[in-house]
Amino acid sequence: MAVQEEINLATIIDLQKHPINDDHYREKCKVELDKSGVLVLDNFLYEGSIKSILSEAKKQENLAYYCVNEHNVYLNPFDKNLSKNHPRNKTVTSSKGCITDDQVPKKSSLRALYNSLKFKDFLCDVLDETVLYKYDDNLSSINIHFAKEGQELGWHFDNSSFAITLLIQKPKAGGQFEYIRQFRNSNIKDNNYDGVLNLLNGNCIPEKLTMENGTLVLFRGKDAIHRVTPTIGDRTRILSVLAYNSRPDVSLSESARMTFFGKLY
What we know:
By secondary structure, the chain is α+β, with helices and mostly antiparallel strands. It has seven helices and 13 strands.
């Protein structure tokens, strides 16, 4: 079983460029993530793997649930005790399509990557986690996001301590990942309202990531505010989110499943 997994992994990941089993490589990745809050691994998957995953995504795109959400950057309920112009209550827009874990083919290279023990072991070392678990519901572990022309992900902080994404298809233009590190301190409940207001008024210059197809990104977004700018052109931006938990038996809340997936099961 373990041998078979290694064979499969070696056909998916470019292990020459990204030797995820090597302790020195893992330490190098961890240092970079700890230093800058983001780890960008270009050409993580072989071109053939990405083409296969892209073909699967396009075949399933008609199943995607599209939604437009108005939310604040904190992804929390609005505070009625504050004005509509307060940063806690100012709204941004997120719009995308999404297919859920149960719609990803069982034999997909994407699922093989997600389930790989070696891949999860690599992630644990880099993220400083003891163990990683899939979501307990059948929708949330692997998601594929589709952003057609004009669709975007508005400014926000993540609720989770880390995010893992794989770019499957870049758009012709737009779809730029932008972020500002250490923009709040959630540990002491400092929400940096003044900084957020400046950002929403266009007075801050964020950092930008350049990504090609097959790029794996590990990102700490709990205190780093970030967004994806609107897609420009007729080529859909397609991105997979690989979602894990540090505890077993965790499901995404029913309200979140209805909001993002349009269904509970």
